């Protein structure tokens, strides 16, 4: 686990535990205020910024919260996922949203995804798998978080990064791909999903991408000798407005909760 971690709370919140206490009394729209800004280092020595939504304290000291790591789309940043993160926090998850290298507060003068050329973008995105690795290790190492109960949620091109981490991490319990894109910077998403060994996977498909979702599901099942492990949830919005879809948070939250904390 990473040890050189720096937690920097926002001006209104002084610690992750304080975040959780405040979050419990806030409506979903305001939960983003109950996150803490965090910094952590990748294996190639980059300092990344993220938002940590600490879990609400459990009455049972032995009951740790499931973890959820949210991975934004290429060209986006972590702030776009505050609503999703806040909703999952309210559902009992410890949630981390990270700015990948070249994005948001993790960008620097030598690495800005938005202004990079296509070749540099592909290299940057491929190396972002290291960012996801560091973020996952940071998240499950937090106090009150279950170290072997991690869910990954990838948005757009972030789906490819989520799949890559899921294939390499036995602690991943569930995977959600929101509007997974065809252009994954050289990564074959179908082959990646097919190699997950039956890991519960949900594809959340906007109405203009439902055919793509069905093709992904069919190909993954075929390559997995008919094992059916990929579910599809249809959203009402088109891809461009997927983050404002009213079905997104509720559908994602319920499905992840059922996978991470199954009913006895």
Indicate the topology.
Layout: E1 6-8, H1 16-23, E2 36-41, E3 47-53, E4 65-71, H2 82-90, E5 94-98, H3 118-140, E6 145-155, H4 158-168, E7 172-178, H5 189-194, E8 201-205, H6 210-223, E9 230-234, H7 246-260
Parallel strand pairs: 4-5, 4-6, 6-7, 7-8, 8-9
Antiparallel strand pairs: 1-2, 2-3, 3-5
Helix pairs in contact: 2-7, 3-4
For the biggest β-sheet, the strand order reads 1-2-3-5-4-6-7-8-9
Share of residues in strands? 15-25%
SSE ordering: EHEEEHEHEHEHEHEH
Report Rg: 17 Å
General shape: globular
Q: What is the helical fraction, as a range of percent?
A: 25-40%
Number of strands: 9
**CA(first)-CA(last) distance:** 31 Å
Number of helices: 7
Main β sheet profile: 9 strands, mixed
CATH architecture: 3-Layer(aba) Sandwich
Q: Would you mind describing this structure in some detail?
A:
With 264 residues, the protein is an alpha/beta fold. It has a single domain, classed as Alpha/Beta hydrolase fold, catalytic domain (Rossmann fold), CATH 3.40.50.1820. Helices cover 33% and strands 21% of the residues. It has helices at residues 16-23, 82-90, 118-140, 158-168, 189-194, 210-223, 246-260; strands spanning 6-8, 36-41, 47-53, 65-71, 94-98, 145-155, 172-178, 201-205, 230-234. Strand 8 (201-205), helix 6 (210-223) and strand 9 form a beta-alpha-beta unit. The longest helix has 23 residues, at 118-140. It is globular. The two termini are 31 Å apart. Residues 1-33 have low confidence and may be disordered.
């Amino acid at each position: 686990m990473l040890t050189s971690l720096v937690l920097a709370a926002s001006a209104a919140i002084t610690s992750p535990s304080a975040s959780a206490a405040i979050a419990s009394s806030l409506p979903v729209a305001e939960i983003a205020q109950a996150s803490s800004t965090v910094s952590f280092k990748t294996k190639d020595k980059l300092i990344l910024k993220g938002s940590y939504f600490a879990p609400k304290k459990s009455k049972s000291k032995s009951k740790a919260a499931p973890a959820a790591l949210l991975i934004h789309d290429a060209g986006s940043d972590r702030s776009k996922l505050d609503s999703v993160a806040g909703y999952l926090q309210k559902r009992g998850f410890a949630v981390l949203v990270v700015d990948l290298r070249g994005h948001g507060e993790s960008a620097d003068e030598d690495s800005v995804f938005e202004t990079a050329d296509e070749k540099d973008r592909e290299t940057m995105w491929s190396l972002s798998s290291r960012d996801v690795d560091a973020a996952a290790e940071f998240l499950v190492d937090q106090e009150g978080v279950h170290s072997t109960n991690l869910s990954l949620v990838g948005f757009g091109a972030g789906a490819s990064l989520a799949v890559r981490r899921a294939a390499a991490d036995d602690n991943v319990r569930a995977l959600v791909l929101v509007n997974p894109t065809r252009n994954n910077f050289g990564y074959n998403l179908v082959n990646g999903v097919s190699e997950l060994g039956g890991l519960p996977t949900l594809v959340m498909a906007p109405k203009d991408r439902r055919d793509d979702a069905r093709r992904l599901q069919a190909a993954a099942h075929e390559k997995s000798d008919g094992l059916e492990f990929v579910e599809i949830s249809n959203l009402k919005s088109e891809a461009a407005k997927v983050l404002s879809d009213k079905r997104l948070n509720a559908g994602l939250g319920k499905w992840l909760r059922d996978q991470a904390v199954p009913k006895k």
